[in-house]
Specification:
about 110 residues, about 80% helix, about 0% strand
């Protein structure tokens, strides 16, 4: 039963953030698509892929979102870590550093 409850929690979180993105109906600009990706990665990445922008910029934004995750993913991780009394804040900081370094590395590789 704990496994089923965890799956329901994950499903509810994803559903909540997808609804939140659909309520945020601003035009599909790079900033808007990036924000959507930070909220819920799958939907945000879809919007980013549809943008007609420079390929390199698109790759940098996608790299950051994939490396960081999204608020949807982080809220799921927070709930799971909270059950085991593991601190979330250090994990969050490391994910920001990881996303920044991954984007920097991608910039260096592509230029």
């Amino acid at each position: 039963t704990p496994c089923i409850l965890t799956l329901l929690n994950v499903f509810a979180t994803i559903t909540f953030f997808i609804i939140l993105i659909n309520l945020y109906s601003v035009s599909n600009t790079p900033l808007s698509a990036f924000i959507k990706g930070l909220i819920e990665s799958t939907t945000g990445l879809k919007y980013l892929s549809l943008l007609n922008i420079n390929y390199n910029i698109k790759v940098y934004l996608i790299t950051f979102i994939l490396s960081f995750g999204s608020l949807s993913i982080h809220s799921q991780i927070f709930n799971i870590l909270n059950e085991y009394k593991v601190l979330y804040y250090p994990f969050f900081i490391v994910r920001i550093i990881h996303a920044s370094l991954a984007t920097l590395f991608m910039f260096l590789v592509m230029n």
